[in-house]
Amino acid sequence: MVSVAEKLRDQAKNLKAISDEETLKGKYVKRLREESGTLEKHMREVASRYERVHGHLTNWSNELEDFQSDADKVLRQAKEKQGEVEAEKKKEADSADKDAPRPSVSGAEGDPLQSYRKRLNDITGARDTRANHHAGKIRDEIEDVIEDSWWDNVKGWIHDHADEIKAFIDVLGWVATFAGFLALAIPGLNMLVLVIAGVTILLRLALVASGDATWTDVIFDVVGGLLVVGGLGAAAKLASGAKATVGAAQAARTAGLSRGLRGVKGVMDDMGRLMSKMPDGTGRQALGAARNSMRKSISQNVGLVTKGPLRVSPLSTLVHLGDKEMAGLAKMLKANKATFPAAAGAAADKAYKSYQVGLGIAWTGMGMDVMDKALGKSDMTSWTHENLGTGEKPYNEGYSDWKDNTLKPAPDTHW
């Protein structure tokens, strides 16, 4: 079976060479390439089935050797026991009175090898169970040799329509890129981008299974989605951290005001009583103003809590992926930390570090997505070029060759 599988794969390589041949000329070339590619795929599938049956037989052979070894061990022990029993009987026969009656024996005493027989039955029972298991596996493969399974048919359909699927994925990629930027300013659009990213990854995995894409393609699809996912994660971390920071700062301010007011409570009370005894006029107004000035001074010395996003420069907005609100929240964190370092510093640092990680992921995703779209070959324009005669998008051949030949899937990938 291994030999047959090797020969099938050798012939599949020859057919692959025919389908990839670029020097052939004539009207027959296109059909020859298509048929060669289809037959090459089927040969690989049949070779894979031979290899899988070989694997089942190898596993069964190994298990059968183990069962045989266990049975040989039981047989050896049973023979030893049988020898001991016969020697004991001979000894008793030589020493005992021949006319004396002997007690009858039954059960295990009547059959000293009963335990060994049971062990052998257990071994043969396990052997038969595993034999049925492997027979079923092999039978499934044999029945599947002539007629393709539903998954083989699915992979065949994917392989036949790989170019159209790749073009569709390319369109989805461009839509996701533009929508990813817009999602930073338009609430709710990020969910559309996430759905597109999920569909893109599933379609790319299907192409990998049919041998028409590499794992590198999957990685770039995933990384491209990091722009949105990273931005969403950063915004969530920042919003949560901002709320905690404001709460800590507000608690610190309340405590500071309470301490400040306690320190001047006696003076404030005296001034209040004096005002109540004074008639309306300049003196009463001056005393009230002095009292309010004390309160204001205490409030300013304690510090003010920044509760909303602060104004930021256009450059800062650009650094924060164009999201002015996130940039303002980040500035708000720093302001509350500076005013209430002991109370709000830890919460602000934790939130800002988490936000920076998410922002870094978003920038990485955006950078790789832009690089891939700038340097890589466009499957969409390649499809339109082949079918409609339009021009192809400019691309870097070295980059495309590296991407196409990195992390290639196995010839017959199974999920």
Structure notes:
This protein is an all-alpha fold and 415 residues long. It contains 16 helices and no strands. The protein has helices at residues 2-20, 28-95, 107-110, 114-146, 150-160, 162-183, 189-209, 215-224, 226-263, 265-277, 282-302, 314-319, 324-339, 341-375, 379-388, 397-405. α9 (226-263) packs parallel to α13 (324-339). The chain is flat and about 135 Å long. The two termini are 23 Å apart. Mean pLDDT is 76; it is low at 411-415.
Provide the low-confidence segments as ranges.
Answer: 411-415
User: What does the main sheet amount to?
Assistant: none
Average of per-residue pLDDT values? 76
Strand percentage lies at under 5%
Task: List its salient traits.
415 residues; mainly alpha; 16 helices; flat
Helices and strands, with pairings:
Layout: H1 2-20, H2 28-95, H3 107-110, H4 114-146, H5 150-160, H6 162-183, H7 189-209, H8 215-224, H9 226-263, H10 265-277, H11 282-302, H12 314-319, H13 324-339, H14 341-375, H15 379-388, H16 397-405
Helix pairs in contact: 1-2, 2-4, 6-7, 6-15, 7-8, 8-14, 9-11, 9-13, 9-14, 10-11, 13-14
